[in-house]
Design a protein that fits this description.
Helices cover 27% and strands 37% of the residues. The chain has helices at residues 3-6, 14-23, 36-47, and strands spanning 7-10, 25-30, 51-59, 63-66, 69-72, 76-83.
Length: 95
């Protein structure tokens, strides 16, 4: 799998910010078919940091109504990437 196809986008949430400040972890949305080894390799190659551990979980789609028409939100896979001590990863530098 292509390295740039594995990582979709960083997630800026309250949980992700707390993890980053407290435990040096980064929350990223990844391709649903990517495994932990591919995610680790992609983060290390693209962002030039050392990864200690990768945890993943899949978010199930939720049912939503648009007026009277039922639908579902999209399913996604998220990864919590733990960086080694001394490593730092800022998606928005200078902001």
């Amino acid at each position: 799998m292509d390295l740039y196809a594995v990582i979709k986008r960083p997630l800026f949430t309250e949980k992700g910010t707390a993890l980053k400040e407290k435990d040096n972890k980064v929350l990223i949305e990844v391709d649903s078919k990517a495994n932990k080894i591919e995610i680790k390799k992609a983060v290390e190659e693209i962002f030039k940091v050392k990864v200690e551990k990768v945890n993943t979980y899949k978010r199930k789609p939720k049912r939503r109504m648009r007026g009277r028409i039922p639908g579902f939100t999209s399913a996604s896979k998220k990864a919590i990437v733990t960086l080694k001590k001394g490593e730092k990863l800022d998606f928005i530098e200078g902001a």
